[in-house]
Design brief:
By secondary structure, the protein is mainly beta. 0% of the residues lie in helices and 47% in strands. The chain is globular and about 55 Å long.
């Protein structure tokens, strides 16, 4: 934050916890997308040792879109990536939120997130694909991105985990049936294949729903364990009492 807007910030530390002064300027790198606010959400060390940071950039009063910045090992922007080291989706009337950024075989980059329409506030699970050079990959669903609107059979996404197979587990909440009492959300995990299509072989429907208790509950994060199981973390929603921490372990 420079007094006017927020920017991407990277810091690198040595193994002893001290700032690595050889990185960027005295161990720090600040990147501005020439937008009102830039928020760095997640980072990834690419197979060629470049550093990729995923987040969002926002134009004042306009859209908040996915954004990528790519750095060389010394912290300088990779000028061959996107536009002077930066790449972003320019979609109007959409608010994007990044859940994860992954490198695909061959160097392509995938962004998984959620997108909210600023007009009717509908939410969608979103997949975007960029080339190794930081350009939107038009071969991916013929436009570089695809969305699945949340609803009865599509979860409200909050977390993502990439499996060794390359398939993606998307976690979050699934709305209960309209006639359910009480209503609310339940833990839910959906599996998507490498091509961003729902894997209907996963549990026969492509998703698993877990009603932890009567109260509404929502998954906030998950991690794959060494034995192939998945550990999910979340909370339930209680109006009268404090929310409770929930842990669920899945064996696929």
């Amino acid at each position: 934050y420079d007094g006017y807007d927020e920017d991407f910030v990277l810091l690198r530390y040595s193994a002893n916890g001290e700032t690595d002064l050889s990185f960027g300027k005295e161990g720090k790198v600040i990147t501005d997308f020439d937008a009102h606010n830039d928020d760095a959400i997640c980072g990834l060390l690419l197979s060629d040792n470049r550093i990729l940071v995923g987040g969002t950039h926002e134009e004042l009063g306009k859209a908040k879109n996915f954004a990528l910045a790519c750095y060389l090992p010394d912290g300088s922007l990779d000028k061959d990536f996107g536009s002077n080291g930066r790449a972003s989706a320019n979609r109007l009337n959409v608010t994007d939120e990044v859940l994860g950024v992954f490198e695909e075989p061959g160097g392509a980059i995938s962004i998984i997130g959620r997108s909210t329409d600023r007009k009717d506030y509908t939410m969608a699970l979103s997949f975007s694909r960029y080339t190794k050079a930081g350009l939107l990959d038009q071969r991916f669903f013929q436009k570089g991105w695809v969305e699945y609107q949340t609803g009865a059979n599509t979860i409200f996404p909050s977390t993502v985990w990439k499996q060794a197979s390359g398939n993606l587990l998307i976690g979050g909440g699934l709305r209960r049936a309209a006639n359910a009492s009480p209503g609310g959300l339940d833990f839910a995990i959906a599996q998507y294949q490498k091509d961003a299509t729902l894997d209907t072989a996963f549990n026969g429907t492509g998703l698993v729903k877990t009603q932890v208790d009567k109260k509404s509950s929502f998954m906030s994060s998950m991690i794959g364990l060494e034995d192939g199981k998945t550990l999910a973390l979340g909370t339930n929603n209680s109006k009268k009492k404090k929310n409770k921490l929930i842990l669920v372990r899945y064996a696929w």
